[in-house]
Amino acid sequence: MSTPPFGRCAAAMITPFSADGGLDLSGAQRLATHLVDRAGCDALVLSGTTGESPTTTDVEKTALVRAVVDAVGDRAKVVAGVGTADTRHTVALAEAAEKAGAHGLLVVTPYYSRPTQEAIVTHLRTVADATELPVMLYDIPVRTGEGTALTADSLRRLAEHPRVVAVKECSGDLLKSGLVMGDTELAYYSGSEELNLPLLALGAVGCVSTVANVAGRQVRGVLDAFAAGDTALAASRHRALLPLVEAVMHGVPGTVSVKALFQAAGLPGGPVRPPLLPADEALTERLTTALRAALTEPTPV
């Protein structure tokens, strides 16, 4: 695919809240502008895992899309997370996101009720039929539950839908990813930071990155080096980011880590919503140390 449908370096953007836990739309606009204009991100994914979608309301999700689109305009793709365990609810969120100006939809496989592959495919097709927006499938079985990983056959079937154009790959199954990339035109985005470079080597077009919230230039630098054919530099940059990836993404949810770093730096983010708990002082110090080390690497121009 010559032109990635949702950019190459997509930040899985946190959802900023005010001190009292309310939605901070002005903070979201400031953060979105920073990520696009200064951090090298050409897409923003809202209301995903990092965006605390389980604890934001439908009204908040739609307001967030509208605010971020107003802030970044056409300078970046704005992808709205709309996936739920309920097909009708997901369709309603998709329709609201389209009206709010989203450029695309992120749709996670339905969770908890453990639908069959046929039911999952039907759910995702129904959502794709509901709007004119392109769809990124979100395959993350570690969160959606046993049996919900999209099979290679299901992905091939979904690729036949004209609006299903991409996959956010978080299943960790490189064999499946490689097979589906070889058989379809689906644009693959790495959703697991440590697999960004391996998936690029298989044919992925980019990543949806939590770490890009705090180190967007460094994440983008891996993609740029690989695209330029300098695989040694890409590998060096990828390895240099891994300590930060480990600190941010392993042990606590990435949302907790990013918001702790933002609070330490005085950036918009605010608290996490329960049941998540904020980072303690020791974790914040470890995160700050890891980020400082990552940012001392040469920054891509």
Description:
The protein has helices at 25-37, 58-72, 87-100, 117-130, 141-144, 152-158, 174-183, 196-202, 212-227, 231-249, 254-265, 281-295, and strands at residues 9-12, 43-46, 77-81, 104-108, 135-139, 164-169, 187-190, 206-209. With 301 residues, it is an alpha/beta fold. It has an eight-stranded parallel beta barrel, surrounded by six helices. The chain is globular and about 45 Å long. The two termini are 25 Å apart. Homotetramer; dimer of dimers. The record marks 49, 112 as: Part of a proton relay during catalysis. Pathway: Amino-acid biosynthesis; L-lysine biosynthesis via DAP pathway; (S)-tetrahydrodipicolinate from L-aspartate: step 3/4. The active site is at residues 138, 168.
Structural key phrases:
single chain, 301 residues, alpha/beta, 12 helices, amino-acid biosynthesis, cytoplasm, DapA-like
Give a quick precis of the structure.
With 301 residues, this protein is an alpha/beta fold. It contains twelve helices and eight strands. The two termini are 25 Å apart.
Q: Strand fraction band?
A: 5-15%
Largest sheet: 8 strands, parallel, barrel
Task: Tell me the total number of β-strands.
Answer: 8
Helix/strand/pairing category: alpha/beta
Through-space gap between termini? 25 Å
Radius of gyration: 18 Å
Can you count the helices? Answer: 12
Shape: globular
Describe how the helices and strands are arranged.
Layout: E1 9-12, H1 25-37, E2 43-46, H2 58-72, E3 77-81, H3 87-100, E4 104-108, H4 117-130, E5 135-139, H5 141-144, H6 152-158, E6 164-169, H7 174-183, E7 187-190, H8 196-202, E8 206-209, H9 212-227, H10 231-249, H11 254-265, H12 281-295
Parallel strand pairs: 1-2, 1-8, 2-3, 3-4, 4-5, 5-6, 6-7, 7-8
Helix pairs in contact: 1-2, 2-3, 3-4, 4-6, 6-7, 9-10, 10-12, 11-12
